[in-house]
Amino acid sequence: MVKPVIKAELSTFTRGIITEASVLNFPPEASLDEENFKINKDGSRDRRLGLDFEANHARISTDATIDEFPTLGTSTFRWTGANQDPLNEFVVVQFGSKLKVFDATKASISGEGFLGTVSIPVIDKTKVFTYAAVDGILVIASGVEEVFSVSYNGSSFSVTTNRLLVRDLWGVPETGGNDLNKRPTSLTQDHLYNLRNQGWGIPRKNSAGTLTDPISIFNAEYGVFPAPSEAVVSALQFQAGTTPFERIYPSMYNEVLGLNAPPAKGYFIIDALRRGTSRLSAAQANKTKFPSLVHASVGLNSDTTTQGCSLVAEYSGRVFYAGFGGNIADPISTSPALSSYILFSQLVKSQEDIVKCYQEGDPTSRENSDVIDTDGGFIRISGAKKILGMVALTDRLVILADNGVWALRGGSDFGFSATNYSVSRVSTFGCINSRSIVIENDKIYYWGDSGIFLIFKDQFGDLKVESITEQTIQKLYNSIPTTSKENSRGIYDPFEKSVRWLYSFDQNRTNNNQAFELILDVVLGAFTKNRFYATASESPDIVGYIPTSAFLTGDTEDTVIVPGEGVTLTVVVNGEPVVVEGGSRSSGVRSIKYVCAYGSDEFGNIGFTFGTLRNEKFKDWFTFNGVGVDAKAYLLTGAATAGDSSVAKQSPYLVTHFLRTESGVENVGGELVPRNQSGCQVRVQWDFTNTINSNKWGPLFQAYRYRQPFFIDNASSTFDS
């Protein structure tokens, strides 16, 4: 019986890598594995261009030696609107305690855009910075006690060191017990501080009109001291006379004793981290300000949170701080666990507002105790263990912790304010790495322990979280080591509509290790993968991304350099630098570049520049040494059963379709040859075999070689068949 002949036309190949399908149900428009290919919207594939230094690049020193570099904290940020100028678009690159600032609008950012170095006073160079830009100021958090703000005046940068300030709404525990109505016979230091923090810190007039310590007035009347529940304002009244004045009527305190309600706290503004020492300093400063106060604070627990905020974000015109440590030195029972707290500044109107995480009005005052919309404060995220990221997403701030996702927003239809907000838990899928968080328009992507997750709004405007790897590349994601996931970093390219994540299997950057890139095409929902190869020695390393203004790659010439002993050397022949041509066969617009570290100078410091996918010879690091490394590409399709896996089939013909790559001619060794020649080798696997030892793999054969004749006279001739 003659078997029927059926054509299988596969012309839409846009689903990318799929690891979560069997050989019997594998989607024909996907691949089992592929590397160094770019999916086009029309279903075709392009081999990715070689990663090379940007055109007309310059080497910038990291100010770090080769021994320091492997553990150096690195980060990048796009700073827009510096100096309140909307035309300023800067790129900030961190290496240890140094920031390198560039103009992101320049074609060659390293060659033309370097603006200067900013030194941040952080001793521990392993700290990774996070950033927020507000009111033209760059705010930096790094996990140390201080936060830093960088200002630009149009020509130079300046750094201000600040500490986060809050009102003391906690107070200190009372040694006399928890009875709010007990009037102690002696004045302990903790009770004295609490009374001052509850409003007893301002001198009041006695019956003679003399400013006096209100605690002394109370003690003179009753022979004891005020109870924890007593507020000084409850006995303030005006005394009639020729010149009326407000005074304390101590007998009135007995009339309100027994309410059993703690009074408002927060007269003192203290350091959010060094609470104990700042309490004492604030009390002593208050005593200096008001000499008529008799009683003075002399000793309190240090009550110090040992790790400062490591996260900072701008939202609703304020600066938000999170990522505090959970360890407390010399704790007390009222010590806040700041690891689950978020502090937010007052509405930023000047640089001083950036660290004012408190209400402006005195909570213990009768006149201005109300919290107003523009005030700062703090919020406890109930249930959050370790907060790893904060991202402003349209009308809310998304908070990502290692054990889930929360959303902070205005409590009604109005925007966030100190008097109007709500916090809700969105998901239990936690985040593993803050630098893996990528925002794409109104969506957020992040890496977790069990997959890559997407945060998006449903049709009702509510946030939802779902895994985008569970049905696609879960096996591939599971194969990435945890340390690589924890050190990955991502970015969104709005022009190519792709989310990209860099990771490496070897975190020791001095080992010439290969880097990998996982790419998600957000239009197609397809994953692909890039591998960046290392040169034989002293290879450049990719340490991050930078977002830039849109650029279009084109033909360029670059000087060839080679690493020497402690210095980078330019290759010179007959007194002239050797140059190599570079370019791109693609006209696509891109807006990201790679941070490429390489070589050391005469001081032993590693240098860096920026790179792009632009080498049309498909060589990684071609400009680095004039040779480069072949960026090999491969693609493995899935099995095809044609709807019936029980019937043996034959494929006598395989017809492949390619776009011509030859774009011109060039002179090579005196011979005119086509420019951008290419080829594609193919082999066939059958009967579901996955090893060549099965003897069911066909031989490699060339599936593309342009054979039409072409007629040329010189190197400037058009390639025309």
Describe the structure.
This protein is mainly beta and 721 residues long. It is 8% helix and 36% strand. The strands form 19 sheets. Strands 4, 5, 38, 45 and 46 form a five-stranded antiparallel beta sheet that branches. A four-stranded antiparallel beta sheet has the order 6-7-8-9. The chain has a four-stranded antiparallel beta sheet with strand order 10-11-12-13, with no helix packed on it. Strand 2 and strand 3 form a beta hairpin. The longest helix has 15 residues. The protein is elongated and about 115 Å long. The chain starts with 30 loop residues before the first strand and ends in a 17-residue tail after the last strand. About 2% of the residues have low confidence.
